[in-house]
Amino acid sequence: MATLSHLRALEAESIHIIREVVAQFQRPCLLYSIGKDSSVLLRLAQKAFYPGKIPFPLLHIDTTYEYPEMIEFRDRYTREIGAELLVYTNQEAVAAGANPYDLGTSKCCHQLRTRALVDGLKHYGFDAALGGARRDEEKSRAKERVFSLRDAHGQWDPKNQRPELWSLYNGHINKGESVRVFPLSNWTEFDVWQYIHEDSIPLVPLYFAEPREVVVREGSLIPVQPNVKFLPGEVSETQVCRMRSLGCTPCTGAIRSQADSVLTIIDELKEFKRSERENRVIDHDQDGSMELKKREGYF
Amino acid sequence: MAAVLNVPTVLPLHSFLAQQGDRDLLRFSTAGSVDDGKSTLIGRLLHDAGGAFEDQIAAVKASKINRAGEGKVDFSLLTDGLKAEREQGITIDVAYRYFATPRRKFIIADTPGHEEYTRNMATGASTCEAAVVLVDVRHGPTDQSRRHARIARLLGIRHVIVAVNKMDLVGWSETAFRKVVNAFEGAYHVPISALEGDNVVAQSAHMPWYRGPALLDLLETLPVGQEAQTAFRLPVQLVIRPDARFRGFAGQIAGGRVRVGDMVTALPSGREAQVTRIVTYDGDLAEAVAPMSVTLVLDREIDLSRGAMIVSGDKPESARRIHAQAVAMQHEGLVEGREYLLRHTAQVVPARLIKGSLPMNGIGEVELEITKPLYFDPYTFNRSTGAFVLIDRLSNNTVGAGMIDRAARAPRRVSAARQAAAWLRKAADKLEQFSDGAGI
Chain A contacts of B126, Cβ < 8 Å? Predict the structure, then answer.
């Protein structure tokens, strides 16, 4: 046992971070989005406190535009591992009929994700929220600290981040402030898949290829769901495809792929030349789009 | 050249995965300005080793901003992720980038070079085992490259690699290269052309006089994982006790290794115990090594909570007064006489700066007095147990970072000692409010 493999070194770092959160905060939670990164984060949380149970609740921000498979998986899996699950929705926006077609993706996302997240954290009084974001996802994320301070309005100030040296994380906050914590900061998409393979982590079936009814919209394959509207001239077709990352039904495209298992996905990933968030409409609707959303409190 | 680094597609998947599993991890920092060619270098490493994606490169090409010159790709836009950075053409905060070769995985901490953002440079360099300092061969070392090298050495980075760039612009001249080597100390010097790719991923045909490795070759072969060679240290983060039958001490091993059956010492109590189990979710282990996160079970009930340390082998030092190299990281600097919260391993203790004020971005020697004895190793022996940060009690911001080199002598003058004793009593009374939650 000379040196740890890179994946086990990343695992050790993540577990250390998760334990620090429990030690340093009064009321932490884990933001559970049901996606592959959340699934890895959840497993790491199980490992951090084993043989004890995860000592904080999971919080899912339900936009009401989630795929039914995701909700089914969420309820079954969290029950199976005995985790406490909380679900929060911006009911006001939903009642007012918020949707990406009338509001535009940017405003819709602000209402149903950003607003809901900031309100949800406040509603339950969480002072720290663990999230599965990774620095390799997007260039403003590449700049973020592991312990990322948010002011009383849940906002991020990228030009004034706390120094964060070694593995000494500063969780000291004033009343009203909170911290977002990213234990997977240094993981890449590839690392996540390799870990899912090595540790046999269960995933939502949407990640695996099968024939699905889709509409082709600006090069993206949007799976047909009851709440996905057809634009003029659009017709549905059947394509063998899978989701590379999961978001709301109208705003996350599938990719053409035959990969129907973790191993075949890894095989496919070796050949990929395009980044995983390319199919996320919200990242591209304005210049510096993710940074703006994060400043406002987006996860 | 690029094809050498790409994972061979003919490799069967199972052997590909086995190879993935064997690779270790090297973190290295880079610093410098666009003018030194830093972004071009990173861009080339990412691009040639497959760490950048086509759509990201396309977005860079489509950007309104381009400082690389017409027809060239401005790779700095790949790493300068903040709007303010792209607009001003400077790096403000550290950006992390990732790439891999068949031999190793890499994390690049791309740090700012401006003095104003020294804290961000230190943030990026603190976890690195190597630093690539860029120097333009035509101009020699700049303030930024000197600062980067200085901070890298201060932070205990053994492998400072001086990449002497733009060799193409001096006709691949060995004399020009030697001039930089003589002017600027480093563990390694590599003559490169980031723009043309010479000595970046493959040996250059233009510089037969250079017999050393190409930059990537060097990064792939530097030794890593030396924290496993030191004496055993486990700072206790949490006590895990799901029921009356189980009591385990959870933490990340900060040095050395531990085996079931080892006798260990709990600090500060000094009580000894035997390790009966090394518990992980994936099953018990017979042995664990730094930097693994584990949970230890001991054979007898001893007083151990968050902030304590389990050790074996050479004992760490213990002192109430410590001497350290420190960096001041906020506008107010570090002020002699002021009280801070000192975060060290898994504990937070009030500490007073008794010697050595520093202005913002200042680096220098300081002495601190702590309310209770601190167990530490000199930073040069162990980066985890020798490092601390200082936190301002009002703003909660991290205002300083330090590397302990030794225990400091006790105050000579009686009056000073009395003052210190009175302060320690007062501070100890307040200690309780800073103690983190002890267990779950």
Answer: 165-166
The two tokens of residue B282 are: 């994936």
Indicate which CATH number applies to the domain containing B390: 2.40.30.10
The residue count for chain B: 440
Closest CA to B389 of B152, B119, B146: B119
CB contact under 8 A, B81 and A12: no
Two structure tokens written together for A168: 């000494």
How many angstroms separate the CA atoms of A283 and A291, rounded? 9
Q: Is residue B419 part of a domain?
A: no
**What CATH number is given to the structural domain containing B205?**
3.40.50.300
Query: Would you list the DSSP string of B177-229?
Result: HHHHHHHS--SEEEE-BTTTTBTTTB--SS-TT--S--HHHHHHHS---GGGG
Look at residue B391 and tell me if it is in a domain: yes
Indicate yes or no: CB of A185 within 8 angstroms of CB of B96.
yes
Q: Which chain B residue's Cα is nearest to A44?
A: B281
Region of poorest pLDDT, from A119-123, B60-64, B220-224, B230-234 = B60-64
ipTM for the predicted complex: 0.91
Q: State yes or no: pLDDT of A16 exceeds 60.
A: yes
From chain B residues 135-164, the ones with a CB under 8 A of any chain A CB are none
- Determine whether the interchain pair B279/A51 forms a contact, defined as Cβ–Cβ distance below 8 Å: yes
pLDDT tens sequence across B309-328: 999 999 999 999 999 999 99
Nearest to A20 among B79, B92, B237 (CB): B237
Identify the sign of the CA torsion B382, B386, B391, B396.
Answer: positive
Asked if B233 reaches chain A (Cβ–Cβ under 8 Å), the answer is: no
User: Can you spell out the DSSP letters for A44-99?
Assistant: HHHHHHTTSPPSS-EEEE--S-S-HHHHHHHHHHHHHTT--EEEE--HHHHHTT--
For chain B, what is the domain count? 3
Q: Which of residues 38-97 of B touch A (CB under 8 A)?
A: 53-56, 78-84, 86, 92-97
Share of chain B above pLDDT 70, in %: 79
The pLDDT, as a whole number, for residue B71 is 64
Domain range holding B240? 232-312
Looking at residue A272, its pLDDT comes to 65
B44 and B74: one domain?
yes
Is residue A18 pLDDT above 80, yes or no?
A: yes
Euclidean distance between CA atoms B397 and A172, whole angstroms = 8
Q: Select the CATH number that applies to the domain covering A6-195+288-296 from these four: 3.20.20.60, 2.60.40.1180, 3.30.450.20, 3.40.50.620.
A: 3.40.50.620
Average pLDDT, integer, range A255-269: 91
Are B237 and B354 found together in one domain?
no
- In this structure, the answer to whether residues B170 and B242 fall within a common structural domain is no
Asked whether the beta carbons of residue A167 and residue B396 sit closer than 8 angstroms, the reply is no
Domain boundary among B268, B293, B312: B312
- Say yes or no for a CB contact (<8 Å) between A52 and B84: no
Q: Is residue B25 assigned to a domain? A: yes
Structure tokens at A239: 């394509």
Q: For an interface test with B, give the residue of A13, A54, A166 to mutate (most B CBs within 10 A).
A: A166
Residue B137 lies in a domain: yes
Whether B34 and B160 map to the same domain: the answer is yes
Residues B210, B256 share a domain:
no
Domain residue ranges in chain A: 6-195+288-296, 205-284
Check A170 against B391: CB less than 8 A apart: yes
Write the pLDDT tens digit of every residue in B213-244: 999 999 999 988 777 789 999 999 999 999 99
Spatial neighbors of A177 by CB under 8 A, at least 6 apart, are A127, A149, A150, A151, A152
Residues B149, B57, single domain; the answer is: yes
Shortest CA gap B280–chain A (Å) = 7
Distance in Å, alpha carbon of B376 to nearest chain A alpha carbon: 15
Asked if residue B255 and residue B110 are part of one domain, the reply reads no
Residues B51, B33 share a domain: yes
